[in-house]
């Protein structure tokens, strides 16, 4: 798909090297179609990496997509330069009067904190409330999935005794759901988190549908009945080396970290990772864009409600 991102965004050159078509604003204006407008609230500290990962999986359909990167005004990341934020991001105050076909809220390394103790929690609550009327469909990833389930439905998160870390087998619970159309009976997803929500708590909410689960990782995908709120607890967008970088980073820092499950060849960190989730990742995001955004959103974006 032609994905429209700022010309000098670091992801641009990376994706072009992978033969992913990134469209300039000048060329986009020559096409007599309305692009899907997707906002990405990026609260990951590794902003450039996350930008590239999400742009890559959003670039896998014939649809034209225009991305706005959003940051929190109540907290500024210490891991990215101010110049990068100023050039490529906008804050919520600047876009809150806009309508968007889709919104993605990323994970964040704050899952051991109570929600009320997160610096930008009040702002995030405002954004999640705004999404109900200004966005056709919102995709919450990892910690954001737990935050969204708590905000919208009051579902509590819980902490693991040890970190869930690795690539785990999953199954589809609702095979007729369009979000998982084309999925294999078994598929794999990376997870890297300290927290979880109980499957029975999600199943107890009539408005929520459990779409995919894992014996080891628990809930993977849940969605509201109206498809406006999607909750994904894993990281299908991860690069092949993301878990390796996290493992060796913690190992070098002397932090307790287990070898990620089902990731390195023969479970040996001296061997390269075995990528088993990329096809599923592309299918998940293309299904979301097609069935939950493109085929649902009005042509006149101002009529989103």
The CATH superfamily is known as Class I glutamine amidotransferase (GATase) domain
Looking at the overall shape, the CATH architecture is 3-Layer(aba) Sandwich
As an assembly, this protein is single chain
Main sheet characteristics: 12 strands, mixed
- Per the CATH scheme, the topology name is Rossmann fold
Distance between the first and last residues' Cα: 26 Å
Care to count the β-strands?
12
Characterise the protein shown here:
The chain is globular. 41% of the residues are buried. The protein has one domain (3-158, 195-238, 285-303): Rossmann fold. The longest helix is centred in the C-terminal third of the chain and has 17 residues, at 278-294. The mean pLDDT is 91. The two termini are 26 Å apart. Strands 1, 2, 3, 4, 5, 6, 7, 8, 9, 10, 11 and 12 form a 12-stranded mixed sheet that branches. A hairpin with a 4-residue loop joins strand 11 (218-224) and strand 12 (229-232). The protein has helices spanning 10-17, 25-28, 47-58, 82-88, 92-95, 121-134, 143-153, 199-203, 242-252, 278-294; strands spanning 3-4, 22-23, 36-41, 65-71, 89-91, 100-105, 135-141, 158-172, 186-196, 208-214, 218-224, 229-232. By secondary structure, it is an alpha/beta fold. Helix 1 (10-17) packs across helix 3 (47-58).
């Amino acid at each position: 798909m032609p994905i429209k991102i700022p010309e000098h965004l670091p992801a641009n050159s990376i994706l072009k090297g992978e033969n992913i078509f990134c469209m300039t604003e000048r060329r986009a204006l020559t096409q007599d179609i309305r692009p899907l407008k997707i906002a990405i609230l990026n609260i990951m500290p590794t902003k450039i990496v996350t930008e590239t990962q999400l742009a890559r999986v959003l670039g896998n359909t014939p649809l034209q997509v225009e991305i706005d990167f959003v940051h929190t005004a109540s907290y500024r990341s210490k891991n990215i330069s101010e110049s990068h934020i100023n050039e490529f991001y906008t804050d919520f105050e600047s876009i809150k009067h806009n309508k968007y076909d889709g919104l993605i809220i990323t994970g964040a390394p704050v899952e051991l904190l109570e929600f009320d103790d997160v610096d930008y929690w009040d702002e995030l609550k405002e954004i999640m409330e705004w999404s109900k009327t200004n966005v056709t469909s919102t995709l919450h990833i990892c910690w954001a999935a737990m935050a969204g389930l708590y905000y919208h439905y009051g579902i509590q998160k819980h902490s693991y005794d040890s970190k869930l870390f690795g690539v785990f087998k999953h199954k589809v619970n609702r095979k007729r759901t369009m979000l998982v159309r084309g999925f294999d009976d078994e598929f794999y997803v990376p997870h890297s988190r300290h927290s979880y929500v109980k499957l029975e708590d999600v199943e107890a909410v009539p408005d929520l549908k459990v779409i995919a689960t894992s014996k080891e990782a628990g809930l993977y995908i849940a969605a509201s009945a109206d498809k406006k709120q999607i909750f994904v607890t894993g990281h299908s967008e991860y690069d092949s080396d993301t878990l390796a970088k996290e493992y060796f980073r913690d190992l070098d820092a002397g932090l307790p970290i287990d070898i990620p499950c089902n990731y390195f060849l023969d479970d040996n960190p001296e061997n390269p990772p075995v990528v088993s989730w990329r096809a599923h990742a592309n299918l998940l995001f293309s299904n979301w864009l097609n069935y939950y955004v493109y085929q649902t959103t009005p042509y006149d974006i101002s009529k989103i409600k």
